Description:
- The longest helix has 13 residues, at 7-19.
- By secondary structure, the chain is an alpha/beta fold.
- The chain has a domain at 122-252: Ribonuclease Inhibitor (Leucine-rich repeat, LRR (right-handed beta-alpha superhelix)).
- It has helices at 7-19, 40-50, 100-103; strands at residues 75-77, 84-89, 111-115, 123-124, 137-141, 153-156, 169-171, 178-181, 194-196, 201-204, 218-220, 226-230, 243-245, 250-252.
- The protein is 11% helix and 21% strand.
Amino acid sequence: MKKRxxxxxxxxxxxxxxxxxxxxxxxxxxxxxxxxxxxxCNAWVYIYGALGGSKLTVNTPVCETDPCNANCRRVECxxxxxxxxxxxLQLGDATxxxxxxxxxxxxxxxxxxxxxxxGLRDTPIPPQWAALTQLTKLEVTNSKHGTGAAxxxxxxxxxxxxxxxxxxxxxxxxxxxxxxxLPVTWSAMRELSVLNLDKTQVNGTxxxxxxxxxxxxxxxxxxxxxxxxxxxxxxxxxxxxxxxxAPNHRLQGxxxxx
Length: 258
């Protein structure tokens, strides 16, 4: 007669098995995303479920395990479908939370575009995205009025984003729960051309160190934040800067000439 293990051991065994995460398997055009324990397939399937499932991809359920499929308009992969290249969540399709810890697995991601999704719940602005060092475009915006008008990101601008040195466009327009000072460390974003922080709660002064953003052409800071002080003299060396839009802030002076 077999001995029955003590009930505590049974609970321990099932507790251990329950803690194991089942790996997702991508199919079709996306088979090559199945590489490594922390694969892009795993990350995508997790995010897909957390942000609304088939609704996220306009009722195209094949996108859960085949995001590189041509019918998945919210995702774009590279030429040989080994990496997810762009993720675009627009027009109110996404719900839930962003699950920022999962995004770091998209090692070749070049674009994140998230806009007008009132169904998204409040999420701290993710410093974890600093790991996405191939990003050239990061737009998490909100242009809606009424329900969802405040945006869903919360917290202060992450100094850690200094690692996003390939960024060309960064927009957090309409994320009214985001604030804090302009990070001095962002001076490392030397490829940045457009920076839009409209309707955020940013405050403090314009960092003199941002003169290192040699390619910056447009800076938009339309209230309701509180940026004050004078334009830094060091900004006179920013030869490509053509527009500073900050009508509701207490800034003094004009753009210095080198």
